[in-house]
Amino acid sequence: FPVTIGGDKNYFDNISGLESEHLELLRQWIYATENIRQRWAIFDFDRTISKIEGFVSAGSGIEGINRMYKSVAPDMPDITAKDIMEYLCGPNRIPLLRQIMDECKLNGINIVILTNNMACMSDQQLFREYMEVLGLRNDEYKLICSLKYFGDKSRALKTELEDACGNRINLRGGRIVTGK
């Protein structure tokens, strides 16, 4: 699934991103942690949910993107959030990503979408529309924009999750350890 933008460079990253083996690892983790009261699954957007680093936003969600493209190609059909998510994630990964999010919701896992993408602050509507493609309503996940913390994802997670769960959080070797 090659993606080229303005030249011959392929921006699609075939190595990164959630795949079917990650669903099985998630299920194992859910089972192993079922006695923990408050659990959080943290998904980075770029190159974890998507297979591309970054995306274009024009403000006002999908409507804004359609306005932008139609200003240069008026006869172009409307683009949907699903179209763009298939472009960003690969067309065959959307069902898998929905299944991963469904597993989290079914098992009471708090879902966090972490991103350094500017659209998390300038076009939250677009992020909501993308998450709806994955089966997530706005109240079913927490969007953490690390740009508020100058791109420091660790600081963003620590600050925003401490606020959300009421516990002190230590980040150790990629793992989050909570405790009062």
Fold and architecture overview:
The chain is 44% helix and 14% strand. It is an alpha/beta fold and 180 residues long. The chain has a 3-stranded parallel β-sheet with strand order 1-2-3, sandwiched between helices. Strands 4-5 form a two-stranded antiparallel ribbon. The radius of gyration is 17 Å and the shape is globular. Residues 1-10 have low confidence and may be disordered.
State the end-to-end CA separation.
46 Å
Mean pLDDT: 83
Category from helices, strands and their pairing: alpha/beta
Residue share in helix: 40-55%
Number of helices: 8
Strand content: 5-15%
Short précis:
The chain has 180 residues and is of the alpha/beta class. The protein has helices spanning 20-32, 45-49, 61-72, 81-89, 94-106, 119-122, 124-133, 153-165, and strands spanning 40-44, 110-115, 142-145, 168-172, 175-179. The strands form two sheets. A three-stranded parallel beta sheet has the order 1-2-3, with helices on both faces. A two-stranded antiparallel ribbon has the order 4-5.
